[in-house]
Specification:
By secondary structure, the chain is α+β, with helices and mostly antiparallel strands. Helix content is about 40%, strand content about 20%.
Length: about 650
């Protein structure tokens, strides 16, 4: 017999209003708990009643009430597949009847999720499997997917994440998830001018493509994945008959998904700022080796020609830089702007940080090299091994793990560390030596391009991501001078609010006698190591005013530094004493670029300096000479009691 509390809960459920409210609407927490604690047979009985009620509401056209009833049934009996199947059916009908892309997308996602819920309970249910396949392979692949459905669809997905750090350079790590399709997926066909259905073409009409790999990024504000990329490629029958481009498509989309996470999180660009259109990549065996970006398309040509793994990754990052970064730095005849060059250096630096952080490895250790090599497994141009069964999925967890390992791990000898040493470290040190008044500002040469890239990387390395992001947003024009002006404005605004941090590793090599190595992107020791009497000189932009300079060594203890601005008289900063909090005070008479010279004055010990902190100092009160007091005039008595006449 059903208990009193459970009977009362059933009664409440039967009389509760059927609306789009949450499943527990009209039911107390106590009553609902009593119902969930009833026997499985009682739960199934009530869930069946609610499903039958939902069918009646559906026939009456009351779809929202039917959905609410089915959601109640699914919560009452989590082992019952029918509520999920009916939810999928109702959303599928609404998907077919929708007249706007937004409504179609909403109901398509909801229907796929509902059928996935049914398949999680009853994996062999043919109706749910067939209906879900029809939704996934409809005219357009779904723009959004719930994370929970990936394990219950006819499409294989590879799921991974990027390890990001917070806004502050020392903040803890966060993860941003992403996924891409690993099954053979066919793109939707489109009618040509004669009405015949054909495969899509790239923007240059070089070829047609009958395979596609879709890439999704997790929305940090919800439990959904957002479609961001589609990599189109030809089957072996359309291209070279012995080459299967599927592995290459997987590697390209995996790289792009990582880069997207960095741009979104580190440059502060919301998803909408990067465009609502899907970025489409086209892999073709036509044309000359290289890449081209056109609006929301990236064309990678002559992909049958083997390249070094780092060259593939660089090329992808370069073209994606053109896609998402501002058009700054006119460097014709090389390229119209430097956004691609910046993208390949900046994004690959973040890629290295991501991979090393996930592997808990430091460059150039064997573990670090192994982690880099896993980015691009060998054999990315695979010999075609025959047709792949449509929609097949691994049958066991070990098979799924083996598939992911084959795609995401290997020994591809990715020379990412060497790339960063030559393409990032050298431009930064080149910019430091040339300075902000270099003649390179007016040139359109390769040296000028490297100078500008060095400035961009310097801003990130010297101050952190927020100042670089603000500078990229504030730059109003394409000339490099506009970018420099934007940086100066950002520094001035930053100093109004908070101290400016200057990484001690960013000293000018040609004007320093410190034996600590110049700036290195993957240096595993932060800051700069000073020996006694060694000095390092730094560039810093300052508005006019009074500035306080503090120093931050890596470890507490007594240390003595001497600091000078623009070669003026040195001021001492003694750490471990009272002067460390005060710092050194300097006056900048006019806004502009200055040099800050820091010397270790300790007699014997070496000290690692992490950063200098520059902040606004209050104006000193003006010294005034007190005036001599003026005696009040006195009236002198005169005979007769009248005041004395003036002289």
């Amino acid at each position: 017999m059903m208990g009193v509390a459970a009977s009362h809960a059933l009664a409440l459920l039967m009389i509760a209003p059927l609306s789009a409210a949450p499943p527990r609407a009209g039911v107390s927490e106590e009553a609902f708990r009593a119902l969930r604690e009833s026997t499985p047979a009682q739960q199934r009985q009530q869930a069946t009643i609610l499903v039958e009620e939902a069918q009646k509401l559906h026939r009456a056209g009351q779809w929202q009430k039917a959905v609410a009833s089915l959601e109640r049934a699914a919560e009452i009996d989590p082992t019952y597949a029918q509520p999920h199947i009916w939810l999928g059916y109702i959303h599928q009908e609404q998907y077919a009847a929708a007249t706007t892309p937004e409504a179609r997308g909403k109901h398509q996602t909801a229907a796929i999720s509902a059928y996935a819920g049914a398949l999680a309970i009853a994996p062999e249910d043919q109706y749910a499997r067939s209906a879900q396949a029809g939704l996934l392979f409809a005219a357009e692949f779904p723009r959004t997917l719930d994370v929970a459905v990936l394990a219950h669809t006819p499409v294989r997905f590879i799921v991974n994440n990027s390890r990001l750090t917070g806004v502050g350079e020392d903040s803890g790590a966060v993860k941003r998830g992403w996924a891409y399709t690993a099954s053979v997926v066919f793109p939707p066909e489109h009618p040509d001018r004669t009405g015949v259905e054909v495969w899509p073409e790239d923007p240059r009409s070089l070829a047609r493509y009958n395979r596609v790999c879709y890439g999704y990024v997790a929305d940090p504000r919800s439990e959904q994945l957002q479609l961001r990329f589609a990599v189109h490629y030809p089957s072996p029958g359309l291209a070279q008959p012995t080459i299967d481009h599927t592995p290459l498509a997987h590697r390209v989309i995996s790289c792009l998904l990582r880069l997207h996470c960095y741009v979104s999180a580190y440059l502060g660009q919301p998803e909408s700022a990067m465009g609502d259109e899907i970025v489409r990549v086209w892999l073709t065996d036509r044309g000359n080796p290289g890449g081209e970006q056109m609006r929301s398309n990236i064309l990678l040509c002559d992909v049958d020609v083997e390249r070094e793994p780092i060259e593939w990754i660089r090329e992808v990052a370069h073209e994606y830089g053109h896609q998402v970064l501002p058009r700054i730095g006119h460097i014709e005849p090389l390229e119209e702007d430097a956004s691609g060059l910046i993208g390949e250096r900046l994004f690959l630096r973040w890629l290295a940080e991501d991979v090393l952080g996930a592997a808990n490895a430091r460059w150039p250790s064997a573990a670090a090299r192994q982690a880099f090599d896993a980015l691009w497994p060998p054999g990315h141009l695979a010999l075609y091994a025959g047709p792949i069964p449509y929609g097949t999925a691994p049958q066991t967890a070990s098979e799924a793990a083996g598939l992911e390992a084959s795609l995401e791990a290997g020994a591809g000898a990715v020379a990412l560390g060497e790339f960063l040493a030559s393409r990032c470290d050298e431009p930064v040190n080149f910019w430091l030596c040339e300075g902000p008044q270099s003649q390179r500002l007016g040139e359109q040469t390769r040296k000028a391009a490297e100078y500008f890239v060095g400035l961009v990387l310097y801003i990130k390395a010297a101050h952190g991501r927020p100042i670089l992001a603000d500078t990229l947003r504030r730059a109003e024009g394409q000339p490099v001078a506009d970018f420099v002006k934007a940086y100066e404005d950002v520094v001035a605004a930053h100093l109004d609010r908070t101290p400016l941090a200057l990484n001690a590793a960013l000293f000018i090599p040609s004007e320093s006698n410190i034996h600590s190595p110049p700036y290195r992107t993957l240096a595993h020791e932060p800051g700069a190591l000073f020996s006694p009497e060694e000095h390092a000189t730094y560039r810093v932009y300052l508005p006019a005013g009074r500035w306080r300079v503090r120093l931050e060594p890596s470890a507490p203890g007594a240390s003595s530094f001497a600091v000078a601005l623009d070669g003026e008289q040195e001021q001492g900063i003694v750490h471990g004493g009272e002067a460390s909090a005060q710092g050194a005070l300097f006056e900048a008479g006019t806004p502009g670029w200055h040099t800050l010279r820091i010397k270790l004055a300790n007699a014997d010990d070496r000290v690692r300096l992490l950063r200098a902190l520059i902040s606004a100092a209050p104006e000193e009160p003006k010294q005034t000479t007190p005036e001599s007091p003026v005696a009040e005039p006195r009236e002198l008595p005169v005979p007769g009691g009248r005041p004395a006449p003036p002289e």
